[in-house]
Amino acid sequence: MPDKFPSGQAPELRGAQDFSVRAFGCRIQIETACAEAYAVLERYVLPSLPRTACDTQPDALEPGISIRIDTQEDQLQLSVDGVAVASAAQAIDLVPDLIRVLDDAVLNHLKSLHAVHAGVVLCGDRAVLLPGVTHAGKSSLVAEFLRRGATYFSDEFALIDPEGRVHPYPRPLLLRDGRPRQVPVLPGEFNAPVGDAPAPIGWILSLEYQPSSTWNVKPVSQSEGLLILLRNTPHILVDSPDMIAVFQRAVADARCYVGSRAEAAQAADQILRLVAGRPA
Fold first, then answer.
1. Topology given in CATH for the domain delimited by 114-275
2. Residue 132: in which H helix or E strand, if any?
3. What residue spans in the chain does CATH classification 3.90.228.20 cover?
4. Quick one: the chain helix, strand, coil %, rounded to 5?
5. Are strands 216-220 and 255-261 parallel, antiparallel or unpaired?
6. Which pTM was predicted?
7. Which of 44, 111, 229, 232 has the fewest Cβ atoms nearer than 10 Å?
């Protein structure tokens, strides 16, 4: 079988290296014997959160997952709780799958927080929510905000607490920028800070990306803002009976808009005009 590793050599193997991250009630244990994979895991697993050595005997009552990258012939294999989920010739190509694994783990272990599919940035002391389904262009729009000095919260999930505040979910952005595959990008590559505390929601903008569209946005009521959050949550309402009250508090002081946008750079400029109180 031909060698697929880019250097023509198998990756450097060491004794098992590991670390642990705790995020939103979930313990994430990371392990690999591949130096290349360890560097990638250290860089991209919720990078703004502290690392500790993996527990030799973790609390059996503490929920968590175990993530490994192993070498399998000419491939690197990503496994979660002993089940292989992806393989690639280079560790960096496993990162999109790794981030989705982390997303699933965090969402499955949330206790007091409710998730909404939304990009989130902080402008001043209030958050801007950009709800939308996966592949709706949230990450590209968030990236444009970061280029303009906003603070990063998330490019995929808004995590909302019982008081209606949104918490940072500091996963790497996944961007295409014209490429066939998503690539991970850290906020620091835009010289952007990462949020470290919850914030009230100031604006909710549900914008459909239409390449040939002009900026066409109108204000809507907070009741419609509530429906936007409900339409974009991955939770099932019957399983989270308090969710409506939580989202009502989230929209209580927010200005809500719906409409269409064209390219992300233009939309970010228009949204910042709204945030600044100037006509868009």
1. Phosphoenolpyruvate Carboxykinase; domain 3 (3.90.228)
2. none
3. 114-275
4. 30, 35, 40
5. antiparallel
6. 0.89
7. 111
